Each structure stands twice: as structure tokens, then as C-alpha cells.
Amino acid sequence: MPASLNEVKRRISSTKKTAQITTAMQMVSTSKLSRIQQHTGGYQDYISKIKLVMGHLLKSHLLNKNNVVNNDTNKISKWVKEDNDNKKIGLIVITSDRGLVGSYNSNVIKLANDFIKDSDDESKFSILALGNNAIEFYNNRDLDISYTYRGINDTPNFSEVKSIVKNITKMYDDGKFSKLYVCYSHFVNRLTSKCKVEQILPISEKNLKDMSNDDDVSYLPEYDIEPSPEVVFANLLPQYVESLLYGIILDSKTSEHASSSTAMKTASDNANDLIDSLNLQYNRARQSAITTEITEITGGQAALE
To answer: What is the per-residue DSSP string for 172-203?
Structure first.
């Protein structure tokens, strides 16, 4: 067999093995996506309810700082009132730990960078990187990195996320930054994701106005709260932030698995197209070689005659 045919045959064999690997990875990613969607479905009911409660309290003006606490140094006050003396901004950037997820990581990092550049001062940002890709990217940039976390589970549990949120909110309470934003990839469907930047803290009408879809409901102007607004909000606000960030991380992981599944399917399709092209090239070369051999045999026979 000519050397060119051997080379094409080796490429076909190698590409088939690659297609087998990418197909297997696609199946794994699809399985992870189905699992996390089952987990996320039930959680959406819970997060929608707690957002509804916060929307009710917001519309009744109970989140006004004067109704919550009288002491500006109180922890709860910081969660509903921006510290005007501290201009530092915390930006949580959520990416994957691994590659092979298409444009998932690059889109998130691009949006985060655009958000930073659109500000009047890039130096006021402090990065909180969740995921190895974000950590590696910002480690090579001249930006303050105040928190990093690797190894979030493929289907994150609440206790894992709670420890992350506890560390981040403690930094906020300690005055490391006066605002907290999160940049992540929102799962729309299996083929589409949308990168978003949302404000987490402080909680205000601006970043809560779209939390509830029941704008036609008439709310009472006031609530009677037992034992006191301070006690209720001291429990409700941390629970709200924990639930919100947990939902965002679940959403981000769902988008990651969908992106990985799509990327591996695309890779498998490209490999199969290449195999078809190589098979056609191999068959043409083989047919040409056979034709050449027949021509040489026929020519030799004619010369003998």
C-alpha cells in the first residue's frame, strides 16, 4: 500500500478514536445536565417564594433602613444601605474548573471585563473568582483578587455554597467592599446561555424590582412583625442572599453542562465529517492506485506482444 494511503488510513483511525472520546464526553455532560435540571426544578419554587417575600417587604417599605435599624453600624444596615465612604466593589466571577465547554468561560470573563472597563475606576474592583478558569485569568492581571474557590461540585449542594456565601458576606460585613455584584452564565435552554451581571448587595428597590412578577397585587403599606423587625431581618436577609447565590451557582453549573454537551456534540459532528472526507480521499487514492496498476499491467502485456 502506498505511503499516502497509509497516512490517510492512520488519520481515519485516529479521528474515529477522537470521535468516540467526544461522543462519550457528550453523553457524560448530557447526563450531568439532566441531573442538575432535576435538582434545580424543585429549588426554583423555593427561590421564587423567598423573592416574593422580599418583594412584598420592599413594597411595604420595610427594607428602608430607618424601619430596620436605628444603628448604622448594625450588620443589617449594611445589607440595605450602601457605604458611601467605601467605593470598593466586589465582583464574583463564576467560571468552570475545566475546559472543553466551548465559549462558556470566555463569554463570562469578557462580560466581567467589560463591566469593569465601563466603570470610572478599574482599581476599585475586587475580584472573587469561583472556578479555575477565572482564577488563572485574573492571577495574570493587575486586579485585586480577594477570594478564590475551586472544585464546586457538578451538582452543588446547599451546604457547600453556604460556606462560600458565608466567607463572601463576611468580607462585605468587614467593609472589604460596599457593593457586591456577580457575573455568570444564565441557562436559557440546552443550546442557549446568556451572560449576566447582577447586584447582590446592598439589597435595594433597584436590584429587587424585577424579582416578582405579580406587580398587579396590591400590598398593604405596613406589616406587623413579631418579635421585631431586627430579629426577622437578621434571619431573612442572610437566607435571601444565600438562596440567591445558591440559585445563581446552580444556574451557572447548568449552563456549564449544557455548553460542554453542545461543544462535545459539535466536536463529534466535525470528527464524523472529517472521517467522511478522509474516507472519500482514501477511496479515490485507492481507486487511482488500482487504475495505475491495471494500466501498467496492460501496458506490459502489450509490450510483450
So the answer is: HHTTS-SEEEEEEEEE-SSS-EEEEEEEEES-
